[in-house]
């Protein structure tokens, strides 16, 4: 079962984010707090949205998708940028990841959004194969750049 996240889900989303960071070999980089996630998802001006995957039998939360809106100047409409998709290892193969992506695709179609985009680590072959099986194609001609920490502070006018 896939459902929209509610405030009571923040602690499990936080735990799943930590699990994802560990899986991606970057646990020390996942410093977001539950309070920050709550504000981003349910604050006065939500900047992100989330869906929860629950086991049909037990009702246990087994995965999540956290996303936000982007905008294509070329197409002139919004799209969805999937920030995180994670299904607990013991629940993989049960259709939860596909169900989460199907729900986001449904939202795109319903709202007239023309893109659903995400990033995947180049070493994550199981996920890459899964995404390809759904018809997703890598955008290999693009390179992701990121400013963070000292570089961001310096460029933004504040010395670290």
TrEMBL record:
This is GNAT family N-acetyltransferase. One of its GO terms (molecular function) is N-acetyltransferase activity. The lineage of its organism: Bacteria, Bacillati, Actinomycetota, Actinomycetes, Kitasatosporales. Transmembrane segments: none annotated. Pfam families: Acetyltransf_1. Keywords: Acyltransferase, Transferase. SUPFAM superfamilies: Acyl-CoA N-acyltransferases (Nat) (SSF55729). Belongs to the acetyltransferase family. It comes from the Bacteria. Coiled coil: none annotated. Signal peptide: none annotated. InterPro entries: Acyl_CoA_acyltransferase (IPR016181), Diverse_Substrate_AcTransf (IPR051016), GNAT_dom (IPR000182). Residues 1-160 form the N-acetyltransferase domain.
